[in-house]
Amino acid sequence: MHPRTALLGGLGAAAAAGGAFLAVAATNGEAPQPVPFSHAHHAGVLGIDCRHCHYLAERSAWAGVPAMETCMGCHYPVVARPRVEPLRWRRTVALQGFAYFDHSIHLAAGVGCSTCHGRVDRMDRVVSPQRMTMRWCLDCHRDPSPHLRPPGAVADMDWVPSAEQDRLGRQRMRARGIDPDRLTHCHACHR
Amino acid sequence: MPAHDPSRRAFLTGLAAAATLGACGDGPPREAVAYVDQPENVIPGKPLFFATAIPLQGYAQPVLAESHMGRPTKLEGNPRHPASRGATDAFTQAAVAELYGPDRSRAVLAGDDAAAWADFAALAAAAAGPGLRILTGTVTSPTLARQLGMLADRGVRWHVHEPIATAATVGPGIALLSRLDRARVVVSVGDDLLGPGPHQVWNVARWAEARRRQAGGLLLVAEPTPTLTGTAAADRLAVPPSRLDALVRAIGAAFGVGGTTAPSLSERERAWVEKAVRRMGAAGARALLAVGPAAGAEAAALALAVNRVTGALGDTVTMIRSPAVTPPDGAGSFQALLDAMQAGVVERLLILDSNPAYTAPPAFRGALARVPMRYHAGPYRDETARLCHWHVPLAHALEDWSDARAVDGTVTVIQPLIRPLGGGVSAHTVLSAFLGAPAAPLETVQATWRATWDDGFEDRWAEALREGFVAGTDAQTVAEIAMPQPRETGGPAGEGLDVVFLPDPSVWDGRYAAVPWLQELPKPLTKVTWDNVICLPAAQAVRVGAGNGDLVEVVVDGRSVSGAAWIMPGQAADTLTLFLGYGRTAGAGLAAGRGYDAYAVRPDGAVTARGATLRRLGGASGLAVTQLHQTLAGRTDIVRTVGSGETAATDHPTASLHPPWPDLRPAWGMVIDLDLCTGCNACVVACQMENSVPYVGPEEVARGRAMHWLRVDVYHEADGAVFAPVPCMHCEQAPCELGCPVNATVHGPDGLNQMVYARCIGTRTCSSYCPWKVRRFNFFDYAGALPDDYRPQRNPDVTVRGRGVMEKCTYCVQRISAARIDARVEGRAVAEGAVRTACQQACPARAIAFGDLGNPDSAVSRARADVRHYAMLGELGTRPRTTYLARRRRA
Amino acid sequence: MMDAADRHALFEPLTRQIAEITLHRRIRVAWWLALLASAALTALFVVGIVWLFAEGVGIWGINIPVTWGLDIVNAVWWVGIAHAGTLISALVLLMRQTWRNALNRFAEAMTLFAVTIALIFPVIHLGRPEVFYWMLPIPNAAGVWPQFRSPLLWDVFAYLSYFLLSATFWYLGLMPDFATLRDRARARWQAWIYGRLALGWRGSAVAWARWRQTYLAVAACAFIVVSVHSAVAMLFASSLLPGWHSTIFPPMFVVGAVFSGLATVVILAAVLRWSFCLDNVITDEHFDILSRLMLGAGLFTGYTYGLALFHAWFGGDLHARHTVVLRLAGSLAWQTWLSVALSLGVLQALWWARVRRSPAGAALVGAAVVVGMWLERYAIITGGLARDFLPSAWRDYAPTLPEWLLQIGAFGLFCLLFVLFTRFVPLISIFEVKAEAAANGGERHG
Asked: Does the distance separating the beta carbons of B817 and A187 come in below 8 Å?
């Protein structure tokens, strides 16, 4: 066999394998949900605050999924509610077990929902806008000031940093006691 | 947020993710399941705490049970409980693992076949009557007592069998309760006050308090075999058990109590007695003479009389209404049952939470065969269950509604954390079946208290569950009883060796044999695991030519047992110690067949025996010992003892090429007071339960791969043994951090030496560099090898470590993180005392101080300022954050 | 000056003698047997590694505190052996000693193979060998670099650069010989392969000039021989452990490495000379020189041992003194005395010229030295860990079968590589030996 043929053939095989891998990897955590719930409708059109359903975000590590009675509150407000099975949602963001992410402290610090999860209010099916790699987290942990919001703006989907964000962000870091030296050591996220 | 180009990153991160996935187990859960009915008060991600109690030999050990999403994961002491003050012992800490044990019985059995509870209940309903007898262990539960009383009304007689005598009784229904916090001097003749058992937390907490205040805690101990009490003694006399009575009589004579003939004592014995008498005289009512079961009943009566004379009775020791309910035949209860069984009077026998086929004298088995119908209700299908027609699995205390009394009589309502995992049935349900009135255990327990409380039941019930005890139920003091008259005794000195029978410090009387973490818990004075040993004095070992681990045979009263020898420093001459709780044949999980069965040679529940012989057999038993070298080898600066006012630290601060760490708060540090540590191992088990530390089994322990993050070293020196708990030192200039090539162990701004399991590739350089050798390595996938039944016990806030990664004490970083996050969310600083490490929290002696070194008023800062403060191997210049307070020389 | 005819008369036999080992059509049975034996031992190596990856590091005898056993002993010992090859081929070259010309090819091959094996052990000994590459400074999604203050990481760089340097240097030296083989090859495929390997070498004066410059420049980098084993020594010396924390370690290790490497070169020289009838090339004088070097290195090594013990004693530190007592008279003393007997005791035979000049005698001494130096590494590494500061942590170590499989298998792998080397690569540097012969005016060296 001519060396060139071998080379091209080998590259082709590698490309095929890589492509197959990427096809899986590029799904980015998407998986079929038990019901076709649309955040674009609920959070976008109806304007429901994130924390109405993800009620644990300010109190716990996990943001939570709504109990069935939360859904019933709107969908069966008065009419006799049927007995339902619990919905088994497929998580779109699931960090490895050795990474301990805590929602409550991020919200308390002023990091907004859309900062990490993107414009969920425009998503019919939730897709994470980026892979949540450690380096991506470190980008913010090394300098959080561009992402810190004023109090109360945490759940604003359309919040964008203003021109003053540099100054405001640093101010908020001081006020809230946020110190990058205490955010970039391993135990901040790993135990 | 910049979006990353998925293609190249995805490929590489996919690789990395696959690699780490492979190492770290199954990966995160992919599903989030919504509640249908949201329970109140549950915040997923935050644990709930419920006050309850774990019975240890019937006595309540109060706990706050930590529950994550409905699964109990950790037990902590109940800080509001007057008896325990928030501490726990090793057995109680392990109870949460016991709950999930795969060896627990899970089915009602008729013979060997599975049966239905309904069938048993029907049989039981017809069984109550004069031909039925019930045998239990120690009962303190008011509800159980009430049910037994109701059965007694139908002619059912109740008996008690307890292989280990723990509470000193002075009369029917009267018990002695020591108050060591009030004692300046304690003279113990064979009484292991600080040793394992239901009274350990009570005694150690109070003894340590007196010692901490330097207002007491002076121990003078005479004992045949080393115990934790003897180790803590200022003056320890090692005498054979046959001499204990003479010592008590000699002390009695000095106080004018007892017979007129003074016993003849050896030189050393006389010196000890004189010292004891002198100290007791100087302390007056603040002295306590405590006598253990090995000395005999006459000596106990004599001691009571002495305490009365000195005024200690009513002060340092009180007589209380015994928390344990007295069976109809009193102290002879078991013998009465045995006689009845042998006479053929017993038609039906219910054995409830007791294992007499293993723990009772061999005559019981023969007598049991004479009972036509036998029921067994217990947590395991043990030796007794296999001899019974019916077996009912009992619910664990964490699955059960019940009540129990602590050693001071305070009642705790036991509430369940979880539904019975394997179909376990409450003891109350069993008895109500026999009463023919089936009722849920909650109803039964509530019925007891409805009757006891005249009004306000709902409020009082809620308060009992919330506080973890019922206020005002501590036992009443008994002022005057007829004092038993001590009689003259004088046993002739026999031939042969004396034998002492002790409960095992890790498995007690054998009931914890199926809990692997307790099997792997090194016994405090020998550091043997997964086995029991026969303790010999050095002279006997030389005579028979046995070394540690060699097989020896002991013959007592014509019965023999063979086991591994252990040369025990400080063992009395011509005295052997046999430990109970091993040699099990059923219901013991991985421990089946391990060790020797001391019950087989134990004469009728005695604590001692005489006239034993010892000889060496060929062969050796491969002992799994965690600490092979148990002397300081001249390195007396490791565990320091100082005289009064003497400064412990002799090192000068060393210069360092590295810049010092910035002064940030909180700066976590820990100080361990060696003067208070009794070596009880509660901290070791607490750490394992909190951090999901796996057990590795005897073969791996023998290879030196035990995984205890915190170990308690023992050093047998000429003047006694000393204990030193050794966790990670969290050095400010850590050698391990220097050695790791991949930044898997780094230093945090709060002073912690951090271990990042996900990054560790397993070069083991950190362990090689560690001067204290505190790091533990997963040579195999130990966590993965554990039965799946234990997975619910794992702490969800701690990473499970896979094969090939290093792990070590983290100062309970998950607790630090939780406190830090809570404080940040609430906009405040972390409060002093908000973070308590698992070891600190469990310690009955409160020997561990932990907190912010940056706060000059914190307990740990004040401990550092003490003259007794020093750093172990401080001269190396690593600046450990874990330091020690030297032992005070015990005058 | 010799004329062309004289040169041809001098060079041709040498060239033919060495080149024919590689080019000869028929392969001797003895070579096949050697190949099979070493392949069988290499199979043991593979078995050991597969077993290790399947079950985990727990199949070894390591424990807490002795977390390093035969794995690190071999990682250190093999790379130590490599040092003599670099010494002979590079450093001695810079000293313009032409006696190295007859030895440098296979000595450098020994270096390359020893470093290869030494590279394997640190990878397989990891608890998680699948992520060994995290030790390399590759940008990654976690955004984390290796920890550059770690001596273990220095070792990674040291071993890798040593491997690259040795390979480069060896290859440089091989180019002219590959050209020779290309020109003398009988089969077309031989000529093709050697031609590719020769990279078009034509032997022009310009080529030789450039070649010599490059060769000397790369040889100068061979001071790496000091830094590599110093880094290895720092792996131990950077710790605080009483038996390890000593500044004498880097020189002790470097000299010990050269010592053990020279011993291996002696053994190889004797074996090759005997196997391939190279008495005229590898002469008794070579053995004499190598033996003197070995003796000198050995005495120096002994001196550093003494210094290490003296430092520990003189410093007065309790723990260090205990270690000295342990090493000399305690439970681990047998390791010390046996390794001293083998590496230093037997060495004294080299004071006698008859032993020095005899290949068998020198090789026997070399074998004792090699084993003694292995034992010395074993004593330092496992003994240092088994008895450090806290008596409660003291525990002994005993290697298990899987570790012995790797030990023997590594030796087998080395032999396999060497056996293949002798078949396919000229095991003596043809052109350098010819240059040496020419420089001696036609007289054979010796």
From this structure: yes
Whether ipTM tops 0.85, in short, is yes
State the total domains in chain A. Answer: 1
Distance from C-alpha of C346 to C-alpha of B40, rounded to nearest angstrom: 82
- Do B145 and B244 belong together in one domain? no
Question: Do B780 and B871 share a domain, yes or no?
Answer: yes
Hey, which bits of B303-366 come out as E strands?
Answer: 317-321, 348-352
Determine whether the interchain pair C142/A131 forms a contact, defined as Cβ–Cβ distance below 8 Å: no
Neighbours of chain B (3+ CB pairs under 8 A): A, C
Q: Do B758 and A87 touch (CB under 8 A)?
A: no
What DSSP assignment string belongs to B438-487? ---HHHHHHHHHHHH--S-HHHHHHHHHHHSSBTT-SPPBP---PPPPPP
- Domain extent, residue B535, equals 497-625
| Residue B780: inside a domain | yes
- Which residues of chain B, if any, have pLDDT below 70? 1-27, 168, 260, 480-493, 651, 891
Contact across the interface for A56 and B35, Cβ inside 8 Å = no
pLDDT band with cut points at 50, 70 and 90 for residue C442:
low
Decide: B724 and B677 in contact? Cβ < 8 Å: yes
Judged against a pLDDT cut of 90, whether residue A93 lies above it is answered with no
Residues from chain B that touch A186, judged by Cβ atoms under 8 A, are 743, 746, 748, 754, 756, 759
Q: According to the model, what pLDDT value does residue B773 have?
A: 97
Is residue B855 domain-shared with residue B717, that is, in the same domain?
yes
Question: What distance in Å separates residue C383's CA from the closest CA in chain B?
Answer: 12
Report the number of distinct structural domains present in chain C: 1
Whole-model pTM: value is 0.93
**B88 assigned to some structural domain:** no
Handedness of CA B629, B635, B640, B644 (dihedral sign): positive
- Per the structure, the count of domains in chain B is 4
Amino acid (one-letter) located at C59 = I
Rounded-to-integer distance, Cα C128 and Cα B648, Å:
43
Measured between CA atoms, how close is B624 to chain C, in angstroms? 12
For C410, residues 6+ apart whose C-beta sits below 8 A from its C-beta are C45, C74, C78, C117, C120, C121
C305 in a structural domain: yes
Q: How far apart are CA B336 and CA A24, in angstroms?
A: 75
pLDDT of residue A81: 84
Residue of B nearest to C129 (CA): B761
Whether residues B696 and B713 fall in one domain: yes
Residues in C 103-122 with any Cβ partner in B closer than 8 A: 122
Task: Tell me the CATH number at C269.
Answer: 1.20.1630.10
Contacts of B561 (CB under 8 A, 6+ apart): B553, B554, B578, B583, B596, B597, B598, B600, B601
Reported as a pLDDT band with limits 50, 70 and 90, residue A4 is confident
The answer on B251 and B354 residing in a single domain is no
> Cα(B123)–Cα(B120) distance, rounded to whole angstroms?
5
Closest residue, chain A, to B31 (C-alpha): A90
Between chain A and chain B, the number of residue pairs with CB atoms below 8 A apart is: 170
Q: Give the pLDDT confidence score for residue B495 in this predicted structure.
A: 83
| pLDDT beyond 80 at A26 | no
Question: Does residue A4 sit within a domain?
Answer: no
Question: Rounded to the nearest 5 degrees, what angle is found at the Cα of B708, between the Cα atoms of B585 and C400?
Answer: 80
One domain for residues B294 and B373? no
Domain containing residue C173? 4-136+146-439
B245 and B389, same domain (yes or no): no
Look at residue C401 and give its three-state secondary structure: helix
Size of interface B-C (CB pairs under 8 A): 180
Structural domain includes residue C444: no
Query: For the segment C243-302, what is each residue's pLDDT rounded down to a tens digit?
Result: 899 999 999 999 999 999 999 999 999 999 999 989 989 999 999 999 999 999 999 999
Taking CA atoms, what residue in A is nearest to B809?
A: A191
Rg (CA), chain B: 28
Percent of chain C with pLDDT over 70: 98
**Does any domain span residue B802?**
yes
